[in-house]
């Protein structure tokens, strides 16, 4: 373990230098029994530093025994730097030349020349053997060289195990002091071997948002739930998208679409006056148009929009139009207001009209069952006594303000228009005489619809005087007829005809 710690410390320094290395088109290496050649264009000093950074030293020239170098450089053409052992000119450094199919030869080259690479030797404790696996293994040194066709690998080499055609590697391993350490390792050394990120607190690989760590512990894969629009659930060893309440999975099994509860469950809003309205992820039971919700019940308020006096109130749970003082709701139209008088006399409703007022006239209206009259220059409405003006009831008539009421004697039943008819025999009574049940049920008869009345001051008095004169003349004619009868003279058509004609003429004038 102590050797592993020392190797890790040295590898930290190597890792810092690794990021400063300029990339090349191809960095290749080959190692045999602790010896490696590295193909890269370098001068002598740079080659020496590069070898030392990988915890090795330039190979000592073995010009008389070139078999080792020939074996290492088999199949390679080029010149490679070796270690200087003294005796060379200061400006020249040791190197070896390799030609395919020929033995390697030692030579001396200007130290500033950039040769094809260098040969580096490593201590036995700073190399690792082949990583044992059935899968393909790719070896890369800490300086980015790809090591091929080798049986030993220098300190800091990373072995990546990957099956042929696989998207992600099976594992990664780092050569430290003769041992292959599996990734993730210390985050300060080559990022712990992680592909995207490493947590220095735990020395574990981490992934960005919507990604998850692969089973190899170093790679990041898109999270199986990343495409889900709302939620995701684990089902055994798999994941499946899920949706919130009120939604269901779409055709792509990833997106979520709203459920229209109102269409799928027509009876959701069964309360009277309510209708179902679909919302995103839910639904609402709301009152239909012209209805408002009060204490959980939908109430019809549409009538309030049509009230003539624009006043409306709730009576016995139902909204009704109300009228201003002096008016009442029309019995035939619940939205209209009509004048109402609850006494014998009421002030008339007059429409201002300057033209009529200039002629000492007014256009006034009275409620049903009232007639206009003038008192002290004021137009009023006086109740019409329908019971006196005409026979509106067969038996009994009761005058009311603005109307009248009919009733019948016992044994009669009140019919329409104030008529009374006898009650029929009770079926199965066994009596020879009709059984007369009392019927005093009154009926309220409305007065006729009032019409506009044009009143001139003193007109009523003139009409009254004219009626009196007509009655006086009629009385005189009747008296003359009676005298003729008392005198013993026969009453003939000749004698009566002039009188009848006069009476008829008088009636027409009246």
Automatic annotation (TrEMBL):
InterPro entries: C-type_lectin_domain, cEGF, EGF, EGF-like_Ca-bd_dom, EGF-type_Asp/Asn_hydroxyl_site, EGF_Ca-bd_CS, Growth_fac_rcpt_cys_sf, NOTCH1_EGF-like
A cellular component term, taken from the record's GO annotations: membrane
Domain EGF-like: 258-299
UniProt subcellular location: Membrane
Topology class, membrane: Single-pass type I membrane protein
Signal peptide annotation: 1-25
Pfam families xrefs: cEGF, EGF_CA, EGF_Tme5
Keyword Repeat in record: yes
Major location category of this protein: membrane
Gene3D superfamilies (alphabetical): Laminin
GO terms assigned for molecular function: calcium ion binding; carbohydrate binding; transmembrane signaling receptor activity
Record field: transmembrane: 454-478
Keywords noted in UniProt: Disulfide bond, EGF-like domain, Glycoprotein, Lectin, Membrane, Proteoglycan, Repeat, Signal, Transmembrane, Transmembrane helix
Its biological purpose: Endothelial cell receptor that plays a critical role in regulating several physiological processes including hemostasis, coagulation, fibrinolysis, inflammation, and angiogenesis. Acts as a cofactor for thrombin activation of protein C/PROC on the surface of vascular endothelial cells leading to initiation of the activated protein C anticoagulant pathway. Also accelerates the activation of the plasma carboxypeptidase B2/CPB2, which catalyzes removal of C-terminal basic amino acids from its substrates including kinins or anaphylatoxins leading to fibrinolysis inhibition.
Subunit structure: Interacts with ITGAL, ITGAM and ITGB2. Interacts with thrombin/F2; this interaction switches the specificity of thrombin from a procoagulant to an anticoagulant and antifibrinolytic protease. Interacts with ANGP1 and ANGP2; these interactions significantly inhibit the generation of activated PC and TAFIa/CPB2 by the thrombin/thrombomodulin complex. Interacts with PF4; this interaction enhances generation of activated protein C. Interacts with HMGB1; this interaction inhibits HMGB1 inflammatory activity.
Protein name: Thrombomodulin
Organism of this sequence: Oryzias latipes (Japanese rice fish)
